[in-house]
Amino acid sequence: xxxxxxxxxxxxxxxxxxxxxxxxxxxxxxxxxxxxxxxxxxxxxxxxxxxxxxxxxxxxxxxxxxxxxxxxxxxxxxxxxxxxxxxxxxxxxxxxxxxxxxxxxxxxxxxxxxxxxxxxxxxxxxxxxxxxxxxxxxxxxxxxxxxxxxxxxxxxxxxxxxxxxxxxxxxxxxxxxxxxxxxxxxxxxxxxxxxxxxxxxxxxxxxxxxxxxxxxxxxxxxxxxxxxxxxxxxxxxxxxxxxxxxxxxxxxxxxxxxxxxxxxxxxxxxxxxxxxxxxxxxxxxxxxxxxxxxxxxxxxxxxxxxxxxxxxxxxxxxxxxxxxxxxxxxxxxxxxxxxxxxxxxxxxxxxxxxxxxxxxxxxxxxxxxxxxxxxxx
Length: 377
Hints:
By secondary structure, the protein is of the alpha/beta class. It has 2 domains: 3-285, NADP-dependent oxidoreductase domain (TIM Barrel), CATH 3.20.20; 304-376, no CATH class. It contains 15 helices and 12 strands. The chain has helices spanning 34-46, 62-73, 97-108, 123-131, 134-144, 158-167, 187-197, 218-226, 234-243, 258-268, 278-292, 315-328, 331-334, 353-356, 364-376; strands at residues 3-6, 10-13, 15-18, 51-53, 81-86, 113-121, 147-154, 172-176, 201-204, 248-253, 339-340, 343-344. Strand 5, helix 3 (97-108) and strand 6 (113-121) form a beta-alpha-beta unit.
């Protein structure tokens, strides 16, 4: 395993373990297969992974408990770093962040959380937190010793990301990033700005929730052979794209089998920053063009439409869901995102205000209907 330096005194494995998709006994997310989860987590540990990421809501609250039990029962809690997230999903309701943190510590069976994130941050949440004098809580918990580094996980546009980095002295943050999403949310601009601010970045969704892991259709296999990559999986090349970035601290993978852990750990033990071979980069450029050439909506995510939407629908994200589903044939995975916290795509009233300001001259109401019909069909 290769490691990256955090704050001069911590070596973090460049592959991190995401505990959002632990093995389950049934369709009930709370029904974690503890034996299988222990095998996977211990396999990660034995392969050098020392960063384990969970959240208050993962597996309906059971991810923290199971992760804590496994780390403590195997006497490795003090040999690894735990990352956890404070839930901030309904800031219109009263909340006690101090009590929530204490509950998380109890679930994990520990007296500290090494990397603590404000969960699923965006510009609107940040504005609400500032009005709640949340700076006080953030400063207090850092001083208390209950947490080590303080950061945020991010789901919004670059402008909000920049504002967050400018308005608080964060230790790190977490963004979605992969070779298809270089312009999505924080994207490459976010990575560059984080480097400018000297804030390390944790990467989530390196394979777009697994959508990039099993895409070796005959055309892609031929494409890899053309670039001399026939002996590599597409997932390996996708990971290498991110490991190549020196701004990245660690890359989270929601691994739920020993095989996945072993394969990803092997990749993470070989790829240094600034070292991805040119043939891999060229392959990914062609692969990206191949996916985009499918029946996708040519939205550039300029967001002009969102200012005109009376229902506050995140139109660019709706189209991103459609495009992902078409490109990767994964609409069943993506249906829930149509009812995103930014606004419900099914609430579109077809007023047409959005289409009037679209620089691409897209018939946005018709495309939203096309998206919902396709996803639910």
